[in-house]
Design brief:
148 residues, alpha+beta, four-stranded mixed sheet
């Protein structure tokens, strides 16, 4: 389970294992208190060329493993929500992709958004993809995921 928390990527990189990650008070799945540390996992983000260490916790009751992740990033995505939205916006409004990110990656995001909007929000949002992006985020979905 991924739990978004306010965290600074530069500080995580600088402090590594010493970064003061917040400990969840309760397990989000079973609500039991007393979760314990379960080590670290590496993750890559576009802003940094090396991996960062993200903190994990484990629930003693249900065994749920919780991975803390900086807020502003979708699970399993290296680019921030803001960067993904900027890429999609530029493509839809100006017809061009942003430089610095591969075109195939940006195209993947646009196609994923089209697929998500069509499946979840319906044809009413077909020509309102940017609005659909925001609606899907508010609903807790990853609007650029490849699968619905």
């Amino acid at each position: 389970m991924v739990i978004p928390v306010e965290a600074d990527l530069k500080q995580i990189l600088a402090q590594e294992r010493a970064y003061p990650w917040p400990r969840p008070e309760r397990c989000p799945r079973c609500r039991q208190s007393g979760v314990w540390g379960h080590g670290f996992v590496t993750a890559y983000f576009d802003e940094h060329p090396v991996h960062l260490l993200l903190r994990r916790f484990r629930c003693p009751g249900c065994g749920c493993v919780m991975r803390l992740r900086p807020a502003g990033y979708f699970a399993r995505f290296q680019a921030s929500r803001r960067r993904i939205f900027a890429c999609i916006s530029r493509r839809l409004v100006e017809g061009r992709y942003l430089s610095g990110i591969s075109r195939s990656r940006q195209r993947h995001w646009v196609v994923g958004l089209q697929r998500q909007v069509r499946a979840i929000l319906g044809e009413d949002f077909r020509n309102r993809l940017l609005e659909g992006f925001e609606v899907l985020v508010r609903r807790g979905r990853v609007p650029v995921a490849a699968r619905v």
